[in-house]
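Quick one:
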Amino acid sequence: MTSTLRVNGVDLVAEASGALIWPEAATIVVADLHLEKGSAMARRGTLLPPYDSRATLDRLEDAIARTRARRVICLGDSFHDGDAPERLDAVEVARLVRLTRLVEWIWIIGNHDARPGGRTRDTARQAVPRAWGGRAEAVVTFGALTFRHEADRQAGPGEVSGHFHPKAAIATRARRITGRCFATDGRRLILPAFGAYAGGLDVLDPAISDLFERGFHAYLIGRATVRAFPSARLSPVW
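Output:
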């Protein structure tokens, strides 16, 4: 199940997968894939099943096929760190290359994407090997929407971003529901993390909520649904 929302006059679809669909532009937008986070955690002694990249790409490939998208925009932090492309399994690399050749592919550069020591935009771009396809940008604008990694407080209407991995909670009479969410006030939109191991930050945290001066709606992702709730109805994420 999906839920429709409107940002700066543009009709968009929030999917339970965590992907944002822009039907009119045949575009899929995803944020914070954090590919190879599992292998990064393993290096630090936290052993997790090493299948997060595969699971993330499975869901992304499914979304592309299902929606017949002609463009994919990845909103930064596509890789968990600058060395992640070197750790990605060859089978998944081949699949990723096939996908970038199938559609127009845009890598928005995030704070996790730069290689160690990389401080400029040019060195950050090296985090995605050129041979893998797609083009890397800091910010892109299509029509009424502007896509970047982290929200800019000074941005005008139509900003779409990621970075914060928003999560939300709702308390009902029967139970408490917590999950990833989209957050929007109709002027700007923040996407949930798409990556399997990406984690999240309470959408009520001031780092997120202060970006919406007049309140917002959280589109809470359930097992197979997306439901909208006004920010006043949300509970803190435990």
